Amino acid sequence: MSLKEYKNILSKINFKNSFKPTETSRVMYSSIIKELLNSDNLKKKKILDLGCGCGILTILLNQKFPNNTFYASDLDEGALLDSKENFDNFNLNINIYKSNIFDEWLKRKEKFDLIINDISGVSSYLTEETDWFNNSIPSEDKDGFELLKRFLNDSKNHLNSNGVIFFPILSVSNHKKALDYANKIFNIKLIGKSFWPAPINLQNKFDYLSKLRKDNIIDFEEKFGSIFFWTSVYMANQK
Ligand SMILES: C[S@@+](CC[C@H](N)C(=O)[O-])C[C@H]1O[C@@H](n2cnc3c(N)ncnc32)[C@H](O)[C@@H]1O
Q1: Which residue has a Cα nearest atom 4 of ligand 1?
Q2: Cα–Cα distance for residue pair 217/178, rounded to 1 Å
Q3: Domains of the chain from N-terminus onward
Q4: Residues lining ligand 1, judged by CB closer than 6 Å?
Q5: How far apart are CA 230 and CA 140, in angstroms?
Q6: How do the residues of the chain divide into helix, strand and coil, expressed in percent and rounded to 5?
Q7: 238 class by beta-carbon count within 10 Å (0-12 exposed, 13-18 middle, 19+ buried)
Q8: Are residues 35 and 58 in contact, defined by beta-carbon separation less than 8 angstroms?
Q9: Ligand 1 centre from 110 Cα, in Å?
Q10: Residue 169 in contact with residue 200, Cβ under 8 Å?
């Protein structure tokens, strides 16, 4: 899907009460779709969109692979409200529930063939400095890694055999720690990476960010005189 097509779908999606899709949403979709198009014809699979926000990833994936069963969940009421409205507008029948990570899926004893996790953490040192990362982005710990760690631990119990997970790691968290941890449990493959500019009120905090980078809490690159963070997207299966 071209950027134009992506933007066209985005323009038809309501995110009044939920997280506004970002460059991370776009690179997740484009890298996941590339992998799935390479695999055998994807059908009759159970696909979970964890931390679905306004439902954009489910809507995009459903357009490409309609002959599958889609599930979505989010902890945030606004996300549930918006995604239900968006699914209706796109005539999609999606199994959607409120859930703190896997809690609801555990109660329902559900397992999936593909799990797309978009609950990406941000270091609390950054969220304290800017309101750009709104409340939809988890920011409980200084490494911004605790929720991803829970996802990685619990996803094993929700995967069918040969199941696959997709998840992003952002440089606004301790990406080295996250990667080391993921590598211990899963066979992981980097499938996409994209740089995005730091929010305006962090651009002039170079010394503060450099100190965090030195302490391995976050990472960034300087390009064209500006600070850029990045999102890496991984695909993984069980060892
Ligand atoms: C980065 S947003 C991504 C939303 C959507 N996938 C997109 O691309 O626009 C992360 C989502 O995770 C949800 N979230 C945060 N903490 C969560 C948790 N503990 N359990 C479930 N969802 C959570 C947020 O409400 C938010 O909608």
Answers
A1: 53
A2: 11
A3: 3-196+231-238 (3.40.50.150)
A4: 18-19, 21, 25, 51-54, 56-57, 74-76, 79, 100-101, 118-120, 136-138, 147
A5: 20
A6: 40, 25, 35
A7: middle
A8: no
A9: 19
A10: no
pLDDT band at 141 (very low <50, low <70, confident <90, very high): confident
The span from the CA of 237 to the CA of 163, in Å, is 6
Q: Is 162 left (phi over 0), alpha (psi -120 to 50) or beta?
A: left
Ligand 1: which atom is nearest the Cα of residue 52?
Answer: 6
CB 169 within 8 A of CB 175: yes
Residue nearest to atom 8 of ligand 1 (CA): 25
Other CB atoms within 10 A of residue 213 CB: 15
Task: Tell how far the Cα of 117 is from the centroid of ligand 1, in angstroms.
Answer: 8
Q: What is the pTM of this model?
A: 0.95
Q: In angstroms, what is the span from residue 203 Cα to ligand 1's centroid?
A: 25
The one-letter amino acid code at 103 reads: D
Give the model confidence (pLDDT) of 208-234 as tens digits: 999 999 999 999 999 989 999 999 999
User: Which residue has a Cα nearest atom 16 of ligand 1?
Assistant: 138
